Amino acid sequence: MALGWLSGTRVRRLVGCAFVCAQAARETKSMEGESFDLAGHKGIIVVPRGNIEHGRGRVASAFIPSGLQGYRTNRMDKLSNMSVYVKVVEMGSFTAVANHLDSTVGNVSRAVSALENVLDARLLQRSTRRLSVTDAGRRFYERCIKILADLESAEAEASNAALKPRGTLRVHCVPGLARQLVTGAVLAYREEFPDVTVDLMLSQRMPNLLEDQLDVSILIARTLPDSAYVSQKIGVSHCVLVASPEYLARHGKPATPEQLCEHQCLLLGTVDYVRDEWQLKSESGDATFVPTGPSFSVNDMDAMAVAVREGAGIGLLAGFTAIDDLRSGKLVRVLPDYHTYERNVYAVYTSRQFVDAKITRFIDTLKARVGVQLASTAQALIH
Question: In the CATH scheme, what architecture does the domain 239-341 have?
């Protein structure tokens, strides 16, 4: 390591260099970085990869040896590495993060290793099959989340992103709800905010918002599983028993839940409904019915609606799917005093500290349209 004796009032440094005192005199400076007043100090100063000059002549060329390479990590690199590390903890895989960031596994691994070298601490335990976060790594992750969220918020305010919706909004929704209510809400949102492009993806499964690069997921569930996601309740939904007038004319209308066993019962199996069990609720009491020997089962609400309208039997339909056919007479309520337990409709997103305006305005639209429609349907169908 090269050390220079200085005789000057000012030196300049790069971010992260190490100072070990200095001898002060007038008009001493380095060529790079930030100025420091060293008047009155004596000793030696170390500057990484910088030329220290006195007047017009070079005093010393300083550099950092291998043992002090951590000083060379500048703050921008550190923030970038922190962001990569947060993704690794959340996604649990170097490969998944590399794919998400369109980078390489080597780059992701080096980013984490660079942080560990600077911190002199092990953040992750690595094996051929999995990654696990150490205690130090967990504490560092929680601090990183706060730091990065503050940085994102500051950048959003500067760029007005937190005030004006723009860009692409990627939304997941369960199919039946999307077809009946959410698509209309998306179109209304687009009309109000034309600078936002909406990419709507339909799927029964609950997605991984980070891996699937989604902004919002709209789900129906009694409760949500524990996760790091943030959720807002949009409304509630119930299923009711329905059949076509033609089916009931041929087979009669059951008067009690026990009489359902005399009918063709069509089974709906989705993420939020148990396929082989109908849990029914009424003011007079609850009932659980287990259909036997069903002739038809399906995992999609709209396909179930088609089967029921065609007279295949009695089935459960969400109120928002059944309401128009019930009003038009294409379908008839069966056991009208009964309905399923309520399911909540949630909008789920990834961050509480910083939420882009395109997300907050979209959730406002969901509450104003979907939430109101769900409440209206419940009032019409649930006594």
Answer: 3-Layer(aba) Sandwich (3.40)
